[in-house]
Design brief:
single chain, alpha+beta, 2 domains, six-stranded mixed β-sheet, 7 helices, about 10% helix, globular
């Protein structure tokens, strides 16, 4: 509760009443999700007398979400495809004095299970992919052909969500200013990866900190690249074996045919075998997240590979997913889809892990080179998740020498971005 105190103090200066943003029922016929434009206080938000739904629907309970802006109503079962109208009264914000939602506020919604599509059926694992018989390095035409046919997480996953029309966070300008309006985007050519065939031999990896790691053995090939290779200039075997203790040394291994992702942190290849500080396994066919409060190879508990703007995407001119960004000072909180925080601040103006930025629609990117324009367009449509602590406005890009013209992204600065109100775990049919 201590972390929320600054939020309440800030809101005490805001006289605007909360507005109704959305009402949805997409997963469970007894769960209606209401989203307001600003945080609402728990007492009025959880008073069931403040809500009514027509057609004989009974509201049995109301629960405010961790984001403070959402309320989940538990109701008697709704019929699929039938229009319902919810009426709301007396729900107030956290200001002093409080401002309540406008009298007569109502919204019509329809319960349609999986309105935005459930996760795709598990057909023969990625049967459209080219056949693989050996590991394939990320910076090759063979990798491009495989990746072009790979669905990275279901289409209704947060990484693949079009957020170009999502509402702007009410404190967006202040949050951007706190990070740095004049600081420019930095392109970090860091995250190498390798694709392995479905029958890749599995090996043991000594995980130094196993508490938040998934168990092996893992399909790690002998030539698995580490972070920064080959642009680091080191021979691969030298990089695998030697390095400073404070280096991140990520290693990303993707099994496209089985739709699995293995991400390691602080990896070394010892005489006795592979060793890593930690490992996170992700099922690319599922929306399942890391366990709550677990990290991953990133502090936020998010996957890294899903965030990378790959050569095959940039060459097509379409990067169709969110990106990864680091911020130096983050809040001691995490927002969906993040599962872990590593913050140093309690200020509501510091972004939490999982906070989503968006490049403003009016920013002109038409003069950017092809690859840079594809990445910038993704920033507008899919945004950027705060994934780790690091230099402000750093984005991760594979160290692929075929990517050209990315220096144009340095023209973008903090003031070109905005913070959005992200969707949650129960949205989009997830």
């Amino acid at each position: 509760m201590k972390a929320l105190a600054p939020i309440l103090l800030l809101l005490s200066q805001d006289a605007a009443a909360p507005a109704l943003v959305s009402v949805t029922c997409r997963v469970d016929s007894t769960k209606v999700l209401i989203v307001f434009s600003k945080p609402v206080d728990a007492i009025t938000a959880e008073t069931i007398a403040n809500y009514s739904i027509d057609n004989g629907v009974k509201v049995e309970s109301a629960s405010r979400g961790l984001d403070l802006k959402s309320v989940t109503l538990t109701t008697s079962p709704l019929a699929e495809g039938v229009p319902y109208t919810v009426r709301i009264k007396n729900v107030a914000d956290c200001a002093t004095p409080p401002a309540a939602v406008a009298a007569g506020t109502l919204k019509t919604f329809v319960y349609v299970k999986g309105l935005f599509g459930a996760p795709p059926a598990r057909e023969e694992p990625h049967s459209k992919l080219p056949k693989m018989s050996k590991p394939v390095m990320f910076n090759t035409p063979d990798a491009d052909a495989i990746l072009s046919g790979l669905q990275v997480f279901p289409k209704n996953n947060p990484w693949n969500e079009d957020i170009s029309r999502r509402p702007v966070h009410p404190d967006s300008d202040k949050m951007i200013a706190a990070i740095g309006r004049e600081k420019t985007i930095r392109v970090n050519l860091d995250m190498a990866f390798i694709l392995v065939p479905p029958n890749q031999p599995r090996v043991e990896v000594k995980v130094v900190n196993p508490a938040e790691s998934d168990r092996g053995p893992y399909p790690v090939p002998e030539n698995a690249p580490l972070e920064g290779w080959p642009l680091s200039g080191k021979a691969l075997d030298d990089l695998q074996q030697n390095g400073a203790a404070d280096e991140d040394r990520h290693m990303l291994v993707i099994d496209p045919v089985n739709g699995m992702l293995y991400e390691f942190f602080h990896v070394f290849k010892r005489p006795t075998g592979w060793e890593a500080n930690g490992e996170a396994t992700f099922d690319l066919k599922s929306n399942k997240m890391r366990p709550r409060k677990w990290s991953s190879a990133d502090a936020a508990g998010l996957p890294i590979f899903a965030a990378l703007p790959r050569f095959d995407e940039c060459e097509r001119g379409l990067v169709a997913h969110a990106l990864r960004v680091t911020i130096s000072k983050t809040r001691r909180e995490f927002l969906y889809p993040a599962t872990h925080q590593a913050g140093s601040s309690d200020s509501p103006l510091a972004p939490a892990m999982g906070t989503r930025f968006r490049l403003k629609a009016g920013v002109d990117i038409n003069g950017f080179p092809k690859h840079a324009q594809a990445i910038a367009a993704a920033m507008k449509k899919y945004g950027l998740f705060v994934a780790d602590n690091g230099h402000d406005w750093d984005i991760s890009v594979p160290p692929d020498a075929r990517l050209k013209g990315l220096e144009a992204l340095r023209k973008l600065k903090g003031s070109d971005f905005e913070v959005i109100l992200s969707t949650g775990e129960n949205d989009l049919g997830r």
